[in-house]
Amino acid sequence: MEISSGRAPVIIGTGSAWPQRAVTNQDLQEIVDTSDEWITRRTGIRQRYIARADRNEETSDLSAAASLAALEMAGKSPDDLDMVIVGTVTGDRPFPACACLVQKKIKASRAAAFDISAGCSGFVYSLSMAENLIKAGQCDTILVVGVDRISVMLDWKDRANCVLFGDGAGAVVVTAGEGPNRILSTHIRSDGECWDMLYGEYGTPYVHPGLEPMTPKPFHVVMEGNKVFKKAVSSMTALSQKALEHNGLTGKDITMLFPHQANMRIISALAERVDIGMDRVYTNIDRFGNTSSGSIPIALDEAHRLGKLRKGDLILMVTFGAGITWGASVISWAI
Ligand code: UT7
Questions:
Q1: Residue 316 is part of which domain span?
Q2: pLDDT tens string 40-49
Q3: What is the reported pTM?
Q4: How far is the CA of 160 from the centre of ligand 1 (A)?
Q5: Torsion sign across C-alpha atoms 58, 61, 67, 69
Q6: Among 38, 42, 198, 236, which residue has the most ligand 1 atoms within 8 Å of its CB, making it the best to mutate?
Q7: Virtual CA dihedral for 20, 168, 232, 93, nearest 10 degrees?
């Protein structure tokens, strides 16, 4: 295993938060032409959490709750943070960055704050940024949040998409440490040629009525599910293998795989190809659905708090999302 010298980027705290309201497959049967049987068999999802703004469940609220939990575990105060990076495509507003609202809500007054847009890969992209800012000596302590409230972008008449997603946030605190238990490497990739396999479409914009015709349309998600499925399996497999090789590891060395929770069938195809038995794959897609950028950090926090991770365990995180983007991170667990 490669252990590089110098400042080690180390995850020292995790946290997560999700809305109160659970929406089951049975609930969805009431509003769209679908069935619990179809959703469970094709995706592995049984329920998801859907936010309500009137319950303070905006993207920044969920992010702040996850962040405070991660800071508490890390034994750090918001004032210790040099940077707040939020991976999201569903910030509270088009601007400012959701990270700035999180900064305000947790009172991280010293930090620089910005968002990263990489679809469901937002968390792994943000982690890659944090890892390298710490290695470069530019920051000592960084909050990384993966969050999405995709429910605001869903067309609830479109059964192909509305049954897949849920809302939620996960956060980690990364600091400059030393020793072998660290983020070993993070690898990120994109293929803009495939952008139209999966994208969010704006709702009706404000245009001058005399300049352009107004065609009312809502926000909605567009996805070519089958194409995304195949690209997700092949891309995540290839990058996982590269990330493992980079660290002199094979799938057999991995204690726990944290895949993006989009579809149980994608997860098992990936696990088989990278030689990681399903007993070493962490999944919570049945309860959360696809929380986009929230998916991996929510799973990581849940696994850690359930005592399923030990210091020195080797973790592989692999993600895939709109862009198309994908990423993989190998971590020697430190807490
Ligand atoms: O997080 C970002 C990355 N996203 C992903 O990785 C998602 C990747 N794609 C997938 O997970 C799967 O392609 C889906 C779950 C989206 C769809 O599963 P599928 O097995 O690929 O189904 P399909 O799209 O081929 O549709 C099969 C049938 C169609 O009916 P016909 O044409 O065979 O009569 C659909 O109309 O299932 C129908 N269908 C549904 N039926 C009941 C599609 N959605 C539903 C639904 N309930 N919700």
A1: 1-335
A2: 999 999 999 9
A3: 0.96
A4: 6
A5: negative
A6: 42
A7: 120
Nearest CA to ligand 1 atom 25: 226
Q: Centre a 10 Å sphere on the Cβ of residue 255 and count the other Cβ atoms it contains.
A: 16
Backbone φ and ψ of 177, nearest 5° = -130, -155
Provide the token pair at 189.
């990739």
Sheet of 256-259: strand order equals 183-190, 325-332, 314-321, 256-259
62-116 pLDDT, tens digit each: 999 999 999 999 999 999 999 999 999 999 999 999 999 999 999 999 999 999 9
Beta bridge partners of 317: 258, 329
For residue 38, how many C-alpha atoms fall within 13 Å in the half-sphere facing its CB?
12
- What's the pLDDT at 214? 67
The overall longest dimension of the chain from CA atoms, in Å, is: 64
- Round to whole Å and give the CA distance between 255 and 107: 36
Q: Output the six-digit token pair for 276.
A: 């990681």
Take atom 29 of ligand 1 and give the residue whose Cα is closest. Answer: 160
Which letter does DSSP use for residue 202 in this model?
P
Q: Which residues line ligand 1 (CB under 6 A)?
A: 34, 38-39, 42-43, 120, 159-160, 163, 225-226, 228-229, 232, 262-263, 266, 290, 320-321
pLDDT in tens, 126-160: 999 999 999 999 999 999 999 999 999 999 999 99
Q: Give the list of residues 6+ apart from residue 79 with CB closer than 8 angstroms, or none.
A: 107, 108, 109, 110
The domain tally of the chain equals: 1
**Residue 102's domain is classified under what CATH number?**
3.40.47.10
Task: Say if residue 194's pLDDT is above 80.
Answer: yes
Catalytic (active-site) positions: 120, 260, 290
**Ligand 1 midpoint to CA 225 (Å):** 6
Reported as a pLDDT band with limits 50, 70 and 90, residue 1 is: very low
What pLDDT, on the 0 to 100 scale, is given for residue 209? Answer: 66
